[in-house]
Specification:
Strand content: 25-35%
Largest sheet: 13 strands, mixed
CATH architecture of the largest domain: 3-Layer(aba) Sandwich
Number of helices: 11
Distance between the termini: 36 Å
CATH topology of the largest domain: Aminopeptidase
CATH superfamily of the largest domain: Gcn5-related N-acetyltransferase (GNAT)
CATH class of the largest domain: Alpha Beta
Radius of gyration: 22 Å
Number of strands: 18
Number of domains: 3
Order of helices and strands: EHHEEEHEHEEHEHEEEHEEHEEEEHHEH
Shape: globular
């Protein structure tokens, strides 16, 4: 007998209560943390799936944007996907994700992003690896830059517009950065229990060139600074960033910060002593091929045309041929064309962000294309490796 699923976008009190119990068990967390999660996400952004009338699982949606090619593409992030143990393995999870994607398509959402607990589930729904999330570490004794080039100003109110303004200047230049919503900002500036969050502007109040937001912790037998967020907009700001941290060396033993797989900040260090402590890849799903290609930014100086044939078994409107014409940093999309580059929706996700080159994707069996189409796709999509500093 085929299971009966019901997907709900408006959850009532009882559904929220049941979903909370599921998430507590799924993520091995407390009722307090579950309440914080719900408050951060907003109850209106919760989705649940019921099997035979009972809540079997759910998730939260986060509407924001992603900077790609200098343009902010509207994006919905997915967080807190949890399924009750008694319903796992019965098709509930894939039904939840598929229903959510159909909802996003109906709303006109171009792309969706998530951090996977398991890739296999999300690949079935059309997600694929899109970019990096990396945590770096270094000993304060190894920084050896002690003279700041700029002044530093303590920030009394971390919920201030200047931080958003500085962040946007950096985000526009980095492929994969979030165009953050309020809940993402809240996680960066709100302290956990028994924690203090500090913030400093780099440069003068009138002309800041960056900032650093961090907290201090005891970890086993050493003290650590965890950088929650940072922006560096000049060489002088980068020097000041490191010297500020180095000058904590008498009390702090280690610095942790989030950066790209190839971290440009580490280029200022005297030796290759900074190491990646942890890394993972986030996944992206092209929800609406036409809008995703149209709204993304492209490299200036590239003028070419690419004929795509896209295969999408879930969102059938994407299962079509498209012509992407690129000029002056913008893309124009129309249906039709020769279909010279044949690609499934998963492969298109990795091509779209530039995580893998067309040649890489061809080797992985994610696309098939003529040499001319490979060359055009390489011109259009190859970029610096996409990454983001935010986890959700």
């Amino acid at each position: 007998m085929t299971p009966s699923f019901e997907y709900k976008t408006l959850v009532d009190f009882e559904d929220v209560k049941n979903l909370g119990s599921i998430l507590e068990q799924a993520f091995v967390t407390s009722a307090d943390n579950r309440e914080k999660f719900f408050n951060s996400m907003g109850l209106e952004n919760l989705r649940v799936i019921c099997r035979d009338g009972k809540v079997a699982g759910g998730l939260a949606t986060l509407s924001m944007g992603m900077w790609l090619g200098g343009q902010s593409v509207p994006m919905v992030g997915i967080a807190g996907v949890g399924i009750a143990p008694e319903y796992r393995g019965g098709g509930v999870a894939i039904a939840l994700i598929q229903n959510m994607l159909q909802e996003l398509y109906a709303q006109g959402t171009p792309i969706s992003v998530l951090y996977p607990a398991t890739q296999q589930l999300y690949r079935k729904a059309g997600y694929e690896q899109g970019g990096h999330y990396c945590l770096w570490e270094i000993s304060t004794q190894d920084i050896r830059l002690h003279k700041p080039s700029l002044s530093l100003q303590p920030i009394a109110n971390l919920n201030c517009e200047i931080l958003h303004h500085l962040y946007k200047q950096q985000a526009k230049l980095i492929h994969g950065y979030l165009d953050r919503n309020s809940s993402i900002w809240d996680t960066l500036i709100k302290p956990e229990e028994k924690e203090t969050v500090y913030g400093y502007l780099i440069g003068s109040q009138e002309q800041p060139q960056g900032y650093i937001i961090f907290s201090q912790h005891f970890q086993t037998d050493q003290t650590v600074i965890k950088i929650r967020d940072w922006v560096v907009l000049s060489h002088a700001a980068a020097q000041t960033f490191w010297s500020f941290l180095a000058n904590h060396r008498s009390t702090i033993k280690k610095i942790l910060w989030k950066s790209s797989l190839i971290d440009s900040l580490s280029l200022l260090l005297p030796e290759q002593t900074a190491k990646i402590k942890h890394q993972k890849r986030w996944m992206l799903r092209i929800v609406d091929v036409y809008k995703a290609l149209q709204l993304r930014g492209y490299k200036l100086g590239v003028e070419t045309e690419l004929h795509l044939a896209v295969k999408d078994d879930l969102l059938t409107a994407n299962n079509d041929r498209f012509i992407l014409s690129v000029a002056n940093g913008q893309g124009e999309v129309r249906q039709g064309g020769k279909g010279e580059l044949q690609i499934d929706i998963q492969g298109l996700a990795s091509l779209y962000t530039g995580l893998f080159t067309p040649h890489d994707l061809k080797l992985a069996g994610k696309l098939d294309a003529s040499d001319t189409a490979i060359l055009a796709a390489t011109e259009i999509f190859t970029t610096s490796s996409p990454w983001m500093p935010d986890f959700f």
